[in-house]
Amino acid sequence: MTETMNRALLPAGLHDVLPREAAFEATIVERLMAEFALNGFERVKPPLIEFEASLLSGPGAAMATQTFRLMDPISQRMLAIRPDMTLQVARIAVTRLANEPRPLRLSYGGQVLRVKGSQLRPERQFGQVGVELIGALQPTADAEVVLLAYAALKAVGAANISVDLNVPTLVPSVCRGLDLPEDETARLRQALDRKDAAEVAAVGGRAADLLAGMMGASGPADRAVELLAGLDLPEEAEADRRRLTEVVRLIRDAAPELMLTVDPVEHRGFEYQTGTSFTLFSRGVRGELGRGGRYRAGGGPSGEPSTGFTLYLDTVLRAVPDPAPAPRLFLPIGTDAADGARLRSEGWITVRALEALDDPAAEARRLRCTHIFTGGQVHPAA
Amino acid sequence: MTETMNRALLPAGLHDVLPREAAFEATIVERLMAEFALNGFERVKPPLIEFEASLLSGPGAAMATQTFRLMDPISQRMLAIRPDMTLQVARIAVTRLANEPRPLRLSYGGQVLRVKGSQLRPERQFGQVGVELIGALQPTADAEVVLLAYAALKAVGAANISVDLNVPTLVPSVCRGLDLPEDETARLRQALDRKDAAEVAAVGGRAADLLAGMMGASGPADRAVELLAGLDLPEEAEADRRRLTEVVRLIRDAAPELMLTVDPVEHRGFEYQTGTSFTLFSRGVRGELGRGGRYRAGGGPSGEPSTGFTLYLDTVLRAVPDPAPAPRLFLPIGTDAADGARLRSEGWITVRALEALDDPAAEARRLRCTHIFTGGQVHPAA
User: Fold this and answer.
1) Which of A74, A266, B139, B218 has the smallest number of Cβ neighbours within 10 A?
2) What ipTM, to 2 d.p.?
3) Taking every annotated instance into account, which residue ranges of this chain make up the domain Aminoacyl-transfer RNA synthetases class-II family profile (chains A, B) (predicted)?
C-alpha cells in the first residue's frame, strides 16, 4: 500500500485530472477551438519541446526563468519545454507560413509547463487556447479578437464576462512627447502602478496633469473615451487615443451588452504588447480568463503587426457551469450488437455487462448506470 | 532571414503541424474519444511530467532509455516526460480510482515524447489515444476492447482494418508444461521469432511438435482456432487456447466482416502482456494503427487483471481519407454581426474583412475564401 501511495504522489503543481472533469475540460477546449475555426482561425500545433535558443530568443527571453530545460542526447543541444504557446505560433507565422496571405488567422490549444506556479495559479501544467491575427494593423483587427474572445467564452457558457482595455504604450508616449527626463518618467510610472494620485500630482507639470487625467478616466469605456478626448495629448499619444476610441466604438457597436472598461494607465503584464491590449474577466471568478493584445510577430519594430489572445483553461473552467452528469445505459449480456450501436447513435452512453447476472439492475446501479436495456426497451435502473 | 530560418529549425523528430493537418488531427482525436465515451470509457488526463521514480517503476522500467529526464528545482528530484500514457492510466486506476466499482473503463488522449524515434516511427513526439478496461478477467472484456478499437477506427473512416490476435503467454506455457530445459526453451523461442520451422523441428520432441503445430496454425482466425483445437496442449496452455477460442468466437459473432488473424507464437512487443493481445493494421498503410492486450494494472501477479489498447495517431492519420477543404465565406466590412453569427450557426466558416475594399471578391479569393456574402446573400467568390 505504501508503494502504491508513493506512486500516486505527483510533483507539486501537477495533477491527474479524473473522469467527468477531464471530459469536461476536453469538451470546453474543443468548443472554444470550434468557435475560433468558424471565425476563420486555422489550427496549428507546435511541438511540446524546442531548442532552448529558439524558444527563449527575443520576446521569449522573459519566460526564461519559468522554463524547464533538458539535454537532447541526439543533437547534444539544450531543449526547453514550452512555457507558453503564443511565441511558438508567432514563429510558425513568420517562418513556415511566411508566404500565406495576410492577415493570417491562426488558433492553437495545448498544454504548457512552468518551473514555478504563481500564487494566483499554483498549477505548473495548464492548458492554453487562443488565436493570433497576424499582419493586420487596423483597429478592426483589435476589435475582432476582443469580440471573438467574448463570443467563444459565451459559447461555452461563461457568464458575466467583462473586458478591460489597456494601451500600455500610452503612458510612455505621453512622457516621450513631453520630453520628460528619465527619472521623472520612472517616478510617474511607479506612482501610476500604485494608482497613487497624490504622488502623480506631486511630480507636477503638464505630464502630471495629463497622467492624472488619464488615471481619472479609468472606468466604463464610454465615459473613459469621452474623458480622454478632453485631454490635450502629445501627437503620438493622441494617435493611440484615437485608435483606442475607434476600437471601443467597434466593440460597443457589435456587443453593446458587454461590460467594457478602459484603464489607460495600466501596463503590467503587457511588457510584450505594442498597442491595444485587454484582459478578460468573469465577475465573481478568481483570476483572469485570459488576456491579449497587440505585438509584433517575429519581434522588434520590423515584426508583423499582430494581435491575439490566450485563454487560461483553469480559470475558464471555473467560470462555466458544471456539466450535468450524463445518463448511462447498462447493456446486459446478450444485448444485440446492432441494438447497442443504435442506442449510441441516439446519444446513449452504453456500459456492457461482461457476464450473465442474476440481478442486472443491481449491477447497473453498482456501475453508476442510470438506465438498463431489457426486453428491447430502455428502463430506469433505479 | 538567417535568424528567421534558424528559429524555424526544430530538433530532429519534432514538427510544427500546420493548418488543415492540425485541425484534422484534432478532429480525429475527438471522434475517437467520443466513440470511447459512448461505450462507457471515461476520460482521464495524467500530467505530462512525473517523478522519474514513479513513472519508470515496475513495467515502466522498460521505457527508461526512451525517456527524457529533467531536474525539478522545486522538489530537487528528477522528473521524466512521459514516453507513454498507458502506465499513467493504470497508475490512476489503482491509486486515485481504487475505490471506483470494477470493471473500470478509462480512456485517454495526449502527447508523448521519446528520446529517440524508431526506424518505423522517426517522430519523437506523437499522439496516443486509447482505453483501459481494468479489473475484468472475462473473455468478453478482451472481445470488447478489440471490437471497440475496430468500431472507433471505422468511425473515423479507416478502411480495410485487420486485427492480429496473439497470446504471448502460450509458448512459455507449453515449454513450462512439458518441463523443457531453459536452453531448449530459448532455442525454440529464437527459432519461432525467426519463423524457422526447420530449426523448431530440429529441437525434436513433443514440444517441437506442438510448437510446429502452433506455428502452422497462424493465419485466418477460424482456421487457426480449429487447428489449435487439434493439438494436445499441456493444461495451462490449454486454458490459454480455450480463452483465445472464446475471444475469437465473440469477435466473429459481433463483427463477422472484420479481417481477423491469429499468430499463436508471436510475442515480440508484448513483453508486458499477460494474455490475449492484438495488433491493429490497415491494409496498405505502413506501420501499426495500434496495439493492446491483457496486463496486470499495478504490475506483478497481484495486479488487477486488465486489458486495453493504444492507437498511434500518426499511423491512424495515414489510414483515414484526407478531409475535404472546408468552404470559407468572406464577410465584407459592414456585414451585420447578426448575419455573421447566423451564417456560422449554419456551419459557414466566416472570414472578416478588416477594411472597406474596392474589389471584395478579389480579396476573398486572395484569402482562400470560396464564397462571399454580398447583398444579404452567399455567392461563389470565383
Assistant:
1) A74
2) 0.95
3) 29-227
